[in-house]
Amino acid sequence: MILVIDDDESIRLSLGLMLKRVGYDCDVAANPDEALQKVRQRHYDLILMDMNYSRDTSGREGIELLMKTKIFQPETPVILITAWGSIELAVEGMKAGAYDFITKPWHNLLLLQRIETALKLNSNVKVESEEGFDRSGIIGNNSALKELLATVEKIAPTEAPVLILGENGTGKELIANAIHNNSKRRNNPFVMVNLGGISQSLFESEMFGHVKGAFTGAVSDRKGRFELADKGSIFLDEIGELDPGSQVKLLRVLQEHKFEPLGRSIPKKVDIRVISATNADIPAMVSEKTFREDLYYRINLITLRVPPLRDRRDDIPLLVRHFISNACGANGIRVPEIDSEAMDVLCRLPYPGNIRELKNIVERAVITGGATLTKKDFEPFTASLVSKQNISSNSLDDIERKALREAMERSNGNYTQAARILGVTRQTLYRKLEKHGMK
Question: How far is CA 228 from CA 209, 231, 270, 381, in A?
Answer without folding.
Answer: 10, 9, 9, 40
